[in-house]
Amino acid sequence: MTSAENQPASLPAVSVIMPVLNEERYLRASVRHILEQDYAGQLEVVIALGPSTDRTAEIAAELVAETAGNSWGRVHTVPNPTGRTPAGLNAAIKASRHPVVVRVDGHGMLSPDYIATAVRLLDETGAANVGGIMHAEGENDWEKAVAAAMTSRIGVGNAAFHTGGAAGEAETVYLGVFRRAVLEQQGGYNEEFIRAQDWELNYRIREAGGRIWFSPELLVSYRPRPSVRALAKQYRNYGRWRHVVARYHAGSINLRYLAAPTALLAIAAGTVLGAAVTPWGFVVPAGYLAAIAAGSLPAGKGLPARARLRIPVALATMHMSWGWGYLTSPRRLAHRVTASRREPVTP
User: Fold this and answer.
1) What are phi and psi of 60, to 5 degrees?
2) Residue range 78-90: average pLDDT?
C-alpha cells in the first residue's frame, strides 16, 4: 500500500465503485487488488451491497473495519436493496466523492498498475472513459475452457476487450475508468438495463461527443462462470439485453451482434430441413460443429487435455445462448426514458 505522505499533489483522487451480490468467494481478493495498487493518489472503495445470501456483507464489514484508520485508501459500503447492478453502481457513485471513478466487479482482479495507467490514459487521450482487457482466467478444467472460449475470436468475434489489440477508440470497454463529470452529465447508468448497462452508457457518452478509449495496458482478471448452466444463463442475458440496447439506440447495432442469432436460426432451419426433407439440411449444423471443433484447437493451446475437450461445449453454449436470448428478447424489458426522468447521480 502506498504511503499517504508520498502522494504527489498532481494525481487525482480516485473512487472505486463495486456492486456486489453473493461474492464471498472473491470479494476480499478483489478489494485487496485495489488497495495494493501502485498508485500514489488517494483512493476510496465504495461497495454497493445487494441482498446476498452468503457472507458477502460480513466480509465487506470486515474490510470497512480493517481500513478505518487508513488515510490513503478506505472502504465504505452503501445499500443496494434491489441487488441490480446499475442501481448499485449509481448508489456507489452518489456515495463516492473523487473526480475519477473506477468500476470494478466483486470477482474482478485489477493488475497492479491499473489505476495509475488509467489515470495517465485519461490525461493523454482526453477520453471520457478508458478500459482494457477482460482477462478470463479459470481455476478448473471447465473454467479454463470457458476462459479460452471467451478470449478467442471464434468465441466473441473481434471484441478488443476480450481478444486484445491495438490501443484506440472503441464502442465500449470492459468495466471502465470514468471522469466523474461525464457520469454526472449522463445521469449515471440507466437502471432499466439490468444487463448491458456498460454498452448503453458508453453509447450515450459517444453520442454526446465523448471518447471511449481501449488500451491493452489495462488488464482485469475475470473468473468465468463455474458451470454450463451458469454460462448459458449469462450469455442468454447478454443476448437479451444487447437486443434491448439495439431497440433503445438504433445506431448501436452492428454485424458482430447478429452473428449468434443468425447462426442459431441457420442451424435450426438446417436441422428441420434435414429431418423432414433432405439429409443435405444437416450440412449447416454439421458445418457449425466442425467450425467450433477446429476453432477450439488454437484456443486451447497449452491447456490440459480435459480443458481442451470442453472448449467446443463452451463455445456452443455461448453462441446458442446469446442467439436465443437475442431472438426471444421481450420488448417489455426496457422502455425509453428521458434524461429528466433518470435520477441524477450527483451527491
Assistant:
1) -60, -40
2) 96
Give backbone dihedrals phi and psi of 181, rounded to 5 degrees, phi first: -60, -35
The residues facing 136 across adjacent strands are: 222
User: Which pLDDT value is given to residue 270?
Assistant: 96
Residues 219 and 257 in one domain: no
Q: What angle do CA 146, 110, 191 make, to 5 degrees?
A: 80
What does the alpha-carbon distance between residue 17 and residue 87 come to, in Å, rounded to a whole number? 12
Residues 317, 145: Cα–Cα separation, whole Å: 12
Domain that includes residue 8, residue range: 4-227
- Locus of grid cell 473454467: 143
Overall domain count for the chain: 2
Q: For the whole model, what pTM was predicted? A: 0.81
Looking at the chain, the whole-number percentage of residues with pLDDT higher than 70 is: 90
Per the structure block, which three cell numbers stand in for 27?
A: 470479494
Helices 283-299, 305-327: inter-axial angle, 10-degree rounding:
130
